[in-house]
User: Fold this.
Amino acid sequence: MLAFSLAASPASANWEYTSWGMSPAQVVAASHGAVHAIPPQRRLGPNGPDIVTRAEGSFTEGRLHLRVSFGFRGSDGGLVLVSYVAEDAAQNYLLRNRLLRMFGAPQPSGDADLGSGVWRKPGQDVIDLSISDEGPAFVVQSPPEPVGRSKHYTSSLKH
Assistant:
């Protein structure tokens, strides 16, 4: 007998077509043309501890359009941060609803009245959604936190 669950799946250990630790070239290849490497003179960073944005692109799912940037640790070059921002404020709740479908209810964060929230569970990615009434929503997603440690990264995509 097969059983089906309608509960949201836990936060993934990767973002879409990427895996934590990938190189910029691997992220670009996995995107099938949606992402490009950023030339050294245009790279943003560091964001947080020793993180440089080395690739950027777009992601579309239905009516939701996101600009995406990929942060890599300077010392080993591996992917450690993905940030994505809605195309415009009219898509904020499309982004929030996508996250709710994928990961269930978040822990309230920031301006919870506007829908901001954080998904932070042991062994799962940290996903931080920020929504304001002043512009597009953005998300910062990073690998699971080591026990007893908290990371805070900022997005280079904030308007």
In short: The radius of gyration is 15 Å. The longest strand covers residues 51-61. Residues 53 and 71 are 4 Å apart (CA to CA). DSSP finds two helices and eight strands in the chain.
